[in-house]
UniProtKB/TrEMBL annotation:
Domain of life: Bacteria
Protein name per its UniProtKB record: Beta-barrel assembly machine subunit BamD
Taxonomic path: Bacteria, Pseudomonadati, Bacteroidota, Cytophagia, Cytophagales
Keyword Transmembrane included in the entry's annotation: no
UniProt entry keywords in alphabetical sequence: Cell outer membrane, Membrane, Signal
PROSITE patterns: PROKAR_LIPOPROTEIN (PS51257)
Domain Outer membrane lipoprotein BamD-like: 37-181
Record keyword Aminoacyl-tRNA synthetase present: no
NCBIfam families linked to this entry: OM_YfiO
Pfam families from the UniProt entry: TPR_6, YfiO
Stored InterPro entries: BamD, BamD-like, TPR-like_helical_dom_sf, TPR_rpt
SUPFAM superfamilies the record matches: TPR-like (SSF48452)
Length: 274
């Protein structure tokens, strides 16, 4: 394509864009509700969600009591969702199904509210309050619509969020281990294992608890060491009972051997305790 043709194409595109913007601005200033609503639907079908959103926002308050009001509100909520404005879409979808609980779109609106909150859930390193809120919303949806066409996806979303909370709890416990606060690490791993028994991180947490307890015992005052080494032995026994083929088994056995060695030293130094 030579420069002349390219220049012409660019100018035509700019002209079309300018005309489109001019028409849209006229629509925004118009007092014709039906014209605005019709244009909003056209923009929506073209996936121009920003312009559809702007027009629907203007006409919704003027459509109260009209048959089209229900569809307008659902589409308005969805324009926020399509633009990834998830907190806004969550609010608008909830408003929709509370306003129109018998609507044919109420089920989808409730699902999309939950999905909006799911999409807004932050990475596991951040505060997970909104993740818990999303899980509660998904549970509410599944209770109300247990046989929904969206149930499979909703269950998967719930599992994803649950796994995120698992990882958050595990990493929080492991942080104590990494900074060598072994006493707190043991407590945190124990709480994690009690509250997240089926977590994919439970096996590693169980191993790290053994090692943390061993290290805690090593750093303890002499008159507390035997008791704390024995706790490491108890943790090892629980670990091998539950994970006999664990990928951490060799490391756990090394910690156990070191623990027994320390206990043997204590008995030699304190024969009266034998």
């Amino acid at each position: 394509m030579n420069r002349g043709i390219l220049h012409t194409v660019v100018m035509l595109c700019l002209l079309v864009f300018a005309t489109s913007c001019s028409n849209f601005q006229k629509l925004l200033k118009s007092n014709d509700v039906d014209l605005k609503y019709k244009a909003a639907l056209e923009y929506y079908e073209k996936e121009d969600y920003y312009r559809a959103n702007q027009l629907l926002e203007q006409v919704m308050p003027l459509m109260t009591g009209r048959e089209e009001a229900e569809k307008a509100r659902f589409y308005y909520a969805n324009t926020h969702y399509k633009q990834r404005e998830y907190m806004l879409s969550a609010f608008q979808f909830r408003t929709f199904y509370e306003t129109y609980p018998r609507s044919e779109m109420a089920e989808e609106a409730m699902f999309l509210q939950a999905k909006s909150l799911y999409n807004d859930s932050p990475d596991f390193e951040q505060d997970q309050t909104s993740t818990v809120t999303a899980m509660e919303s998904i549970q509410e949806f599944l209770v109300r619509y247990p046989n929904s066409q969206f149930a499979t996806e909703a269950n998967k979303m719930f599992d994803d969020l649950s796994a995120k909370l698992d990882k958050k709890a595990f990493e929080s416990a492991r942080l104590y281990y990494r900074v060598r606060n072994y006493k707190s690490a043991v407590v945190a791993f124990t709480n994690f294992l009690r509250e997240n028994a089926s977590s994919p991180y439970s096996e590693e947490a169980s191993y790290l608890r053994i090692d943390a307890q061993y290290r805690y015992a090593v750093d303890s005052v002499p008159n507390k060491q035997e008791e704390r080494f024995m706790e490491a032995v108890d943790f090892y026994q629980a670990f091998i009972d539950q994970y006999p083929d664990s990928r951490f088994l060799r490391n756990a056995e090394q910690v156990y051997t070191s623990t027994q060695s320390e206990l043997d030293k204590i008995k030699k130094n304190n024969p009266s305790n034998s």
